[in-house]
Amino acid sequence: MMTDDAPARVLLIAGSGRSGSTMLANLLGSLPGVFSGGEIRYLFERGLRDNRLCGCGVPFRECPTWQAVLDRAAGSPAALDVAGLAAAAARWSRIRRFPRLVAASRGRLPADLAGYAGMVDRLYRAIPAVTGASLIVDSSKLPAYGRLIDLLPGIDLRVVHLLRDPQAAAYSWTRHKPLADGARAAEMERISPAKSAALWNVWNVAAGLLWSGDPSRYLRLPYESLLAQPRLWVERILAMAGQPADLDGVFVGDRTVLLQSSHTVAGNPDRLRRGEVVLRLDDEWRERMSRRDRAVVGAMTAPVRACLR
Description:
The protein is α/β, with parallel strands linked by helices. It has 13 helices and seven strands.
């Protein structure tokens, strides 16, 4: 078991929404020594407050693993100001907080961030101490949240920047996808192609600016390349993250993987899947997306795509 004194090694999956991060988190979390927490930035909101399903299939507050983590991190989870922590998580994940976080440094956080940051720091440290995992996968994606956890003294952050074709991502944002984890809404959020393109630009530019200058802890990964050669890219991710590559129990074919149960807090409903899964490229958008929407997204994202090649 690791102790709370050792920095927690965290692999952040950065990028835009609908980029395939849930699939990648499921895959990595099935490997020995890896704990996938899903979108951990939602732990206080969707986990503790809303009591949505953990990835293991039980309501979050009934999950013994998360209960043990919270016991260790907070002492008395029942005494936590859940509403306040959920509000702080939402506030500090917004892109408009990004400049303040970029200007901050370890040991010099904004005063109004200190309480929330301290709780998050203890939370990540508690995960390896409870689970024995040597790597935590966090698919939170948002650059502001990634910057926040990068500032915490108890975290050794590595980043895989998952880039999906912006037209494919925009089409995914328009699809109806039912939620089956106890959410109040019946479906995942849907947004317009134009808004999706704007977010794709902002989130991916910010991720590149924050971490691409340090290749020892940053890897840019095209989603389409991951699905074409999943084993190769998983090996590269693990090498960058400093994690042993023991893949034989997960890869049962070139593109077939055996997904284990996880403890993901939030994410795409596919986070609840387990068993054998064939990794296939979803390119339905090429036939179903309207020419107008493709043109709008293509034009809006062209400059950023050129810079990220």
